[in-house]
Amino acid sequence: MDIASVLITGGAGFIGSNLVHLVARERPGWRIVVLDALTYAGNLESLGDLLETGRVEFRKGDVCSRADVESALAACGDPATTAVMHLAAESHVDRSIQSGLPFVETNVVGTQILLDAARAAGTARFLHVSTDEVYGSLGPTGYFREDSPIQPSSPYAASKASSDLLVRAAHHTHGFDVVITNCSNNYGPFQFPEKLIPLMIANALEGAPLPVYGDGKNVRDWLYVEDHCEALLTVLERGRSGETYNIGGNNEYPNIDIVERIVSATGASKDQITYVKDRPGHDRRYAIDATKIRDELGWSPRFTFEEALPLTIDWFRSNKGWLDRVRSGAYRDYYAQQYDARGSTADGAPAGRGNSK
After folding, report:
1. Taking every annotated instance into account, which residue ranges of this chain make up the domain NAD(P)-binding (predicted)?
2. How far apart are CA 99 and CA 96, in angstroms?
């Protein structure tokens, strides 16, 4: 597939910013446009020098706005050589339990608006990034496969399952070139500290309590974010149109094991571990069968959990300023400080950088 430009939605988020860095490094000839609404989980600081050098064109906008989406697609240039990598989503399960409506708006309505605009523009390919949570919960054995039943347990998972089905429908109804990925739990640099691993690292380093849901024996398959991003690039370029690919890390651990490993690696005390009331509908176990992507596309994770967890802890130690600004809310000022002061176009693209690569 001849790709010259890519629109990455949600590119200022955790996985999105890591993906932007990977694409910039591995595909130096591609034009990269990022569309992000900069909600609480969006952080332009995570894109760093890619914005300062103009390597990435940033557009502040909402996937629920057809005008914002069309403007970002137009910035990519020739639609026949443009791909969309759709990561923009509300993704925190606890927040979806409090209110499911923002998840329906962004994950379902936003995905349909993006699909319609991309298809109308003649975009070459649409990669939709989803989660293994659409499959529901597993017992002590078994794995999620691409043909596993869709049985979401939380409003978040239900909204992602809905968006997956809309993407499939665009392919089967309109012949739109789409691919879907469903990944296991990610961890690594730039992760917002409401998720398990960055929260535990931050609290362990501060001597704060380490809250563990229920009995701590809920099992997840952990995928290092760099592995995930490499898989996304592989699927974008070589995945079969209309297909779904599961992406897993081959690292299954109960949550309490993760917390104890972080305690040991940071020198924290086990006394910091506190068990708290379990959240409603908490799935017991997730596990991915990634045979399809390995056999068809030759992808498998490069990092084991034993290798990547220390890398993640070291990153948070070395980037305490980033973490402090996220936890205090000061990161929200980054956009205004770096761009609004210089002047921006109406749609959020930094002035004078509309054609930068």
Report:
1. 7-309
2. 5
| Cα distances (angstroms) measured from residue 195 to each of 61, 100, 164, 203 | 25, 18, 23, 12
**Tens of pLDDT along 153-189?**
998 999 999 999 999 999 999 999 999 999 999 999 9
> Which candidate in 57, 62, 70, 133 is catalytic?
133
Catalytic residue from among 156, 286, 334, 335: 156
- 294-308: pLDDT as tens digits: 999 999 999 999 999
Residue 105 lies in a domain: yes
* Ramachandran angles phi, psi of 27, nearest 5°: -130, 70
Which residue among 45, 57, 132, 283 is the active-site one? 132
262 phi, psi to nearest 5 deg: -65, -40
Query: Distance (Å, rounded) from C-alpha 144 to C-alpha 9?
Result: 26
The domain containing residue 152 runs over which residues? 5-184+225-248+282-301+331-340
Does some domain include residue 72? yes
Handedness of CA 223, 224, 228, 234 (dihedral sign): negative
Structure tokens at 38: 């900069």
The Cα 312–Cα 53 span in angstroms is 26
Residue 156 bears catalytic tag: yes
The total domain count for the chain is: 1
Beta bridge partners of 35: 9, 59
- Beta-carbon neighbour count of residue 120 at 10 Å? 12
Q: Is residue 38 part of a domain?
A: yes
| pLDDT tens profile 203-252 | 999 999 999 999 999 999 999 999 999 999 999 999 999 999 999 999 99
Q: Domain with 113 in it: what CATH number?
A: 3.40.50.720
State yes or no: is 215 an active-site residue. no
Write down the pTM of the prediction.
0.92
